[in-house]
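User: Hello! I'm new to structural biology and keep hearing that structure can be predicted from sequence alone. Could you demonstrate with 2-C-methyl-D-erythritol 4-phosphate cytidylyltransferase? Please show me the input and the output so I can see what each looks like.

Assistant: Of course. The first part below is the input, the amino acid sequence of 2-C-methyl-D-erythritol 4-phosphate cytidylyltransferase. The second part is the output, the predicted structure written as tokens.
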Amino acid sequence: MSDESRPSPADDRPADRPITRVAAVIPAAGRGVRLGPGAPKALRTLGGTPMLVHAVRALAASRAVSLVVVVAPPDGAAEVKSLLDAHALPGGTPSGSWGSTDFMVVPGGDSRQESVRLGLEALPPGHDIVLVHDAARPLVPVDTVDAVIEAVRDGAAAVVPALPLADTVKQVEPAAVPGGPEPVVATPDRARLRAVQTPQGFDRATLVRAHETVTDDVTDDASMVEQLGEPVVAVPGHEEAFKVTRPLDLVLAEAVLARRRLNDGF
Ligand SMILES: Nc1ccn([C@@H]2O[C@H](COP(=O)(O)OP(=O)(O)OP(=O)(O)O)[C@@H](O)[C@H]2O)c(=O)n1
Ligand SMILES: C[C@](O)(CO)[C@H](O)COP(=O)(O)O
């Protein structure tokens, strides 16, 4: 069975635990400059299917996720809506819904942070847990999505999936001339560092407050919650939740998809 259709354990909660509805915001408005010339990154294909469709399927694979808000390129919301309608899950679901997961599309902004904020503003009431997931991480396994949801349901205000580093990391000073040697000033203890992925999961009120309060340009939502002084916890991430950023990442993503298809026999 594929990761896209595998049943999700995230709803197997004890009977006394209240149901908390989960929504996901998928920022997909980036241009993909580092990937090179072409369509906006989220609309480029992997295995013949747009990256964004893989990402929405990955989130919708969790039974806990009842709404996905896709944040499209600023002038591309209608195109993205048509694309998602055309790729709705098999079974003849109505427009705007993939199985038991509804979706909506809103236009994004100039930065990831602004796009996430616009997605959050569009969220209807009734979803108390919000995941934020990069469209550029199309192959995240459902078990990782569910682990993040579980940690928020267990009481964490902010949760990030994260992996230990494979490389030693150096802190450097800027080079004297562009492209020149960069003086190394420190080697942080790798054992205490993590590479952070998405989906990141939040208590909705905390995430909204973070986006209302923090004005610095930051690269992930959890760091905004850190700036509020609220605790953020890391849970194990997954190698297949990597971000498609540069051309070589596309090669890896195609290989992962091909392996899944071989394993699943389709
Ligand atoms: N104005 C922006 C910029 C980024 N993103 C989204 O944020 C996620 C992570 O960003 P990144 O991988 O950096 O994507 P791009 O900004 O498209 O890449 P680049 O920096 O190479 O242009 C992606 O899903 C991207 O679509 C967004 O919604 N709105
Ligand atoms: C949110 C993120 O994917 C966590 O690793 C990352 O920070 C996005 O960074 P980018 O520079 O926008 O690719």
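User: So the tokens describe the shape?

Assistant: Right, they're a compact way of writing down the 3D structure. Reading them back into a model, for example: The chain is about 30% helix and 20% strand.
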